[in-house]
Amino acid sequence: MPQINKTALEQAVADFIDPWLGQSLAEAQAIEGIDVTPEGAIVSLCLPYAGACEHQQLRGQLAAALAPLTGDAVVDIRITQAIRTTPTQKQLPGLAGVRNIIAIASGKGGVGKSTTTTNLALALRAQGARVGVLDADIYGPSQGMMLGVPSGTRPESADEKYFLPIEAHGIQVMSMSFLVDDDTPMVWRGPMVSGALQQLLNQTLWQDLDYLLIDMPPGTGDIQLTLSQRVPVTAAIIVTTPQDIALLDARKGIEMFRKVDIPVLGVIENMSTHICSHCGHEEAIFGVGGGEKLATDYDCALLGQLPLALAIREQADSGVATVVADPEGPHAQRYLEIACRASALLARRQQQSRAMPNIAIFND
């Protein structure tokens, strides 16, 4: 067996474009080592984003790209991943045990934001990340039900100062619904709601999370303002439907995040099409192209489009959301792709933040 040219192999691996990052492995600083052995070669990569479900396909693509150099030799491609902390624009103290905080928001209610948050969290976990969910919708918390937490469950206390998050399907979750009875309405004014949010954030003992997803209430009110002023939010994701009235309110949500210096990572278009549960016919009943236009207008990514499907609603209501209930199904695959794309975009943002020089201005 002819010896592999290590220099040529190193260059080929360095030039390979990661399909999710959209940049070379060298630019992504993802190459941990390349060794040529008598049997072939070992290529070790450490990716900066959550994409465990995509690793097998990536191995195949990289192996095909290296084939002209390796021939019939055995190429062992080893892939791991390590999620880093993305710097925020505001100099706020971080949350202990949390690397990145992502706000999942919408301009109006009824667009499926909470269902999307639940499935996105489960998809990120399936992609190999450690994930938590904070239900910040104080008036209408629903994450407990969607993640299958039994009614009446209460969080345990640590040192009589902190709540231990409840674990469901491998997700750490905290919600106001765990602290009150299901039928108790939160008849609170703005300052009380803001105080409750701060307590949930700061008194929950999150445990080594790559991502904390915050399920925001609809609109641009007290909770959104409190979050932007008190919490180092890494980025926001906007959930909308294609119809004009939802897009109008989604624009207000994006403008709000821009005013408080929280970058918008992208847009998820929910209920993009309706899929008939009887015949499978797919129809865009709420309009076409709304999410894509919104993302284009605000120079952010269209992270994905999700259908209005009966199964997604039923699975969320049962406490076993789509990504867990039918992990190989087409709807779960869409959530997995969105999770990988969002994680990769955040990794790119982290890299860009690290590369930016600090500029100091002095008065002479």
Number of helices: 11
Tell me the domain tally.
2
CATH class group of the largest domain? Alpha Beta
The CATH fourth-level homologous superfamily of the largest domain? P-loop containing nucleotide triphosphate hydrolases
Shape: globular
Strand element count: 17
| Terminal Cα span | 68 Å
Which terms summarize this structure?
364 residues; alpha/beta; Rossmann fold; 8-stranded mixed sheet; 11 helices; 17 strands
Provide an overview of this structure.
The chain folds into two domains: 6-81, 2-Layer Sandwich (GMP Synthetase, Chain A, domain 3), CATH 3.30.300; 98-355, P-loop containing nucleotide triphosphate hydrolases (Rossmann fold, 3-Layer(aba) Sandwich), CATH 3.40.50. Helices cover 35% and strands 22% of the residues. The chain contains eleven helices and 17 strands. The strands form five sheets. An eight-stranded mixed β-sheet has the order 10-11-7-12-6-13-14-17, sandwiched between helices. A three-stranded mixed β-sheet has the order 3-4-5, covered by helices on one side. Helix 1 runs antiparallel to helix 2 and helix 3 packs across helix 11. The protein starts with 5 loop residues before the first helix and ends in a 9-residue tail after the last helix.
Task: Summarize the model shown.
With 364 residues, the chain is of the alpha/beta class.
Summarize the helices and strands and which ones pair or pack.
Elements: H1 6-15, E1 17-18, E2 23-24, E3 31-36, E4 40-47, H2 55-70, E5 74-81, E6 98-105, H3 113-126, E7 131-135, H4 143-146, E8 157-158, E9 162-163, E10 166-168, E11 171-175, H5 190-202, E12 209-215, H6 222-230, E13 235-240, H7 244-259, E14 264-269, E15 274-275, E16 282-283, H8 290-297, E17 301-305, H9 310-317, H10 322-325, H11 330-355
Parallel strand pairs: 4-5, 6-12, 6-13, 7-11, 7-12, 13-14, 14-17
Antiparallel strand pairs: 1-2, 3-4, 8-9, 10-11, 15-16
Helix pairs in contact: 1-2, 3-11, 5-6
